[in-house]
Structures are given as C-alpha cells and as structure tokens.
Amino acid sequence: MGTLHPISGIAGLIAMSLKTTAIFTVVMLVVAYTTLAERRVSAWIQDRSGPNRVGPFGLLQPIADGIKNFLKEETLPATANRVFFVLAPIITIAPALVTFAVIPVAAPLPTPWGVVDMVIADVPIGILYVLAVSSLGVYGLVLGGWSSNNKYAFLGGLRASAQMVSYEVALGLSIVGVLMLAGNVTLTEMVWRQQQLDMWFALPLSLAFIFFLVSAFAETNRLPFDMPESESELVTGYHTEYSAMKFSMYMIAEFGHMVTASALMATLFFGGWDLPGSWDDAFWYGGQLISGFAADGSVILATPAWWKTLLTFAGFGLKTGFFLLVYIWVRWTLPRFRYDQVMALGWKVMLPTALAYVMLVAATILVLDEIGMPWGFGYGLALTGVSTLATAGFLLFLDRGHTIVGAAALDRQRTAAQHGHTRRPVAAPAAD
Amino acid sequence: MAITVKRMERPEPERTSYLRAALSGMALTFKHMVNPVKVTQQYPEEQTDLHPRWRGTHRMEVHADGRPKCVACGLCPTVCPANCIRLVGGEDDQGNRYPIVYEIDEFRCIFCGMCQEVCPVEAIHVGRHFENAEYTRDRFVYDLERLMEQDHPTALLWDPSDPRSE
Hints:
The structure holds 2 protein chains of 2 kinds.
Chain A: H1 9-45, H2 61-71, H3 82-98, E1 106-111, E2 114-118, H4 126-134, H5 137-147, H6 151-182, H7 187-197, H8 206-219, H9 231-234, H10 244-269, E3 283-285, E4 288-293, E5 299-301, H11 306-331, H12 339-370, H13 377-399, H14 407-419
Antiparallel strand pairs in A: 1-2, 3-4, 4-5
Chain B: H1 18-34, E1 58-60, H2 75-79, E2 85-91, E3 97-105, H3 114-118, E4 124-126, E5 141-142, H4 144-149
Antiparallel strand pairs in B: 1-4, 2-3, 3-5
C-alpha cells in the first residue's frame, strides 16, 4: 500500500464521482424503504401485517408507489400561482437531499491510489452547512402552502414557518454543547473527538441529545409535531392541493429530512461511524492519517482497511436505522400536540433550558480545562456526571405534569380558585 | 328506565405525568410491534369461513339429465320482496311445467332467501358465495343457464328448532 495520503488527481475525481453517486443512491433507497418501513411498522404496531403483496415481504412496494405517482394526473388548481406552485416541491426536495453531503458514513477506505474519505464533502463549515441548508426546506413548504390558494394549505404553510423558526433555536442551542466539546464544526472532527473521548457524546451531553431529538422531530414535521400537515384539522396542510409526483417530492423531502436527522443524531451524539474500541479510529492530522496520540504526544498512525470501512459503515447504518425506527415508533404512539402547546414547549421550556444547559456545559468544560484534566475517558465521565444531574433535574421538572397541561387542568385550577377545593364537582345525576 | 352514565375515575392532571404517559405508550406500542400475532387475514390464500346460513348469489339445482328442477310454479317471483325474479313458464308434451325464461337481477336482490324457502321442489337456492365481481352491469342479471352453472354450496335454511344452526 505504501504511504498513506489522501487520494487526488484523476483518481480522486473518479473516486469523488463514485462516492457521490453511491451515497446519493443509498440515501434515495433508504428514503424509499423508510416509506415502506413506516407502513409496515405502523401496521405491526396496530396488529396488522401491512403491505406485503408486491414482491417478497412487500419489498417492491416503494417501486410500485413510485410508478403510481409518475402515472397519476398532476393537478394544478385554477387559482394557484403557477410558478411558485411548481417551484415549491423542488425547493423542498433539493435541501433535503444535499444535506447528506457533509456526513461521514464510514472509516476512510485505503486504495492503491490513496485513502478515500467516506464523506462527499468534508467542508470546513460542517454542521453549519447542514443547519443552513436544511432550514431552507421551509421555504418550499411556505411557498407551496401560499401558492395553492387554499386556506388549509395556507394555514399549513404558516404553521410550518412558525414551527421551523421556533425549533431552529432549540436545535441550534442543543448543538452548541457538541461544538464546544468538539472544538470544531466539521462532522469528521466531531467523530474523531468522540473516538478520542472513548465515549459518545450522548452521555456527556445527555440533555443536549434529548433537546436535539425533540427539535429534530419538530424540524422534520413529524408527529407529535406535524402541525404543518395535521390531517385532522387542515386536510393535509401545505400539500393539500398537490398530487402525483409533486406530492411524492414533498414526501421524499420529508423522509429525506428524517434520514438526514437520524444520521445527524448518530453522528453528533452516537459517534457517527465509530464503533467501540480504538481499532477503527482515523483522522487526518497534519497530513497524516492517525488513530491517536501516544503518552509523549507523538502520533500513532492509523491502519485503515477495507473491512474496517465496511464494519463502520454497517455500524453507521445501524445507528441511523435505529433512529429512523424511533421516528416511526413515536409517530404511531403519540398524539399530535395542540398548536399553542408546540409553541409553548419550544419557547417556554426548550429555549430557556437549552440556554441554561449551554452555560452549565461551558462552565464544566472551563473548570475541567483549568484543573488540567486530559481529554479522555475521565473528562467524559466528569461531564457525564454533570449532565446526568441536569437531565434528571429536567425530567423531574417535566414529570410533575406542569409543563404541558391540558385544558382540564386549567379548568380545575379555576374551579379550585372559585370554590376552594381541588376536585371538580361531579354533576348531579339526571333525575329518573 | 333511567339513563345511567358511567363515570370514569380519571387521575388528577396535577398528579399525572406527561412524560410517563408518553413512555408507557411507547412501551405498549413496542409490545404490539414485536407481537407476532396479527389480525390481518391474508384473503386470497386464506378464505373466510362463511356461516352455514350465509345467503349469497343464487344457483339453480339440476336433475341428473341436466334439466332444471324448477317447475315454473311462480311462487318465487310472487314472494320476492324486491321483485327481482322474472319467470316465464312453459309446458312440454307430457304436461310437465318448466321455465322458459328464468332471470334473477342480482342488483335488485336483497338476499332475503325467501325464494329458497318458498320453493316447493328445492330448485332455487341462495348460495354461500360472495365473489361476484364482473366487468359490466348487465352481467349481473343471471339467466337460467348461468344459475344452473353455479356450483358453490347452498345456504342452509333456518330451522326454528335450531335457531342458531348449532
């Protein structure tokens, strides 16, 4: 194999094209099969079988759905704004698909022409690129809702914009902790720092992980936060007037966002493609692919291998798949929030708590750095302790049932204030 | 009788936990997700077990020599509440009556089974059968030949001494 150097030149160009094609194809396939998984898992949860007719175990169902969507009639409402109506699904789908470009999917792959990083574009702005591009998707939702010239679609679009803006804040704040620990915004370095910590960030930043999980649900417009779509109130929200492939593009965008959010959760908080142990650690440091530092500060060179790439890719897929399952599982369990509850949770609970938590993590990191704690397992353990306390406190606070109270509770509070007792008086039984 | 309302004893909202409710819900759905027992019936492979008194589309019983058992007595069109049976009777050289035209409009039929009950020679029957899809509406008027071709099992008549067919 010779010396380890990044692939470059013509070989690099070919490798890049292959990588881009492969990752795009895999993401599209995962999106397609997530739709099938959604239908199968929802069926299982409801003690049904789900679609199992097209191909073995219904595995060709996404293809049948795709063909159906291509062949269906495209409706264009007479009063719709044609340009934006057609443009909106495109604006939605593009950001959903390009965000995956910065997520590293496996350990670097050694080839005779050099080492290939298993990420399409390791851009220096990393996670900021994901945040910036993925929130562009809301323009498609708002435009689609507005240009349909339908009041339900319009309400859906409005809700989409309000919700995305609200939870963008909590999402950003939950990532701040990761940025402070990683010391950089590139996702490759975040994976590397988790490898060096011998601990995935989900433990030292447990509360941030919870916030990220909840905000990601809101950002992807999935239940229990699917306000923009809420079928029971708004027909189907922003895509009420859409049919055939345009509707399908909205669906692909939603599932694409889901896949990206799951991959991000895996990368930011569960080590990305990292597997337990330091055998797979690899990072470009000063032009060398290293797996760590010796006690005297000298570098230990990494030994990439194709089987390591395969194994770590499987690990990354497993983690992402798990979060996709959680998405589906939660969707078919929890009922939808009321609109004001969504806003209250975002602004009154998540934002202040996330801010306080950022301060707490920053203070802990400062103290640990001041006392000269080396970056490693002990460092992570200390942060884990602090975070566990914060998480326990937060959950205890939520658990008292005061965070999101139903209308009945407010009613009871009023009754109690008026009559001086806590139980709502039971209405007298009707006369016989 | 007085109307009684069942009052559910609900926990106080101040004592309930949103979080615990969500987590217990997740646990419940997970149990159902991994539960291998599913209620779905895989229809074309797994046929429904029809009740012995199920009343579906008709069939006409035939003699061993291929003649319909019907004697064109005219009781079934008379008793039919939906007026869906058209019968034109004829008589052969030996004075045996037989149906020249016997048509049942399955769209008009309400599947009450009274034609079967009233038939003195057990010729017309309602069947234990429900797969009747056709491409055109006029295919739903079954003529005599069609009724004689049907070979699905016939419905059991209601027996007052055994009201539940046990």
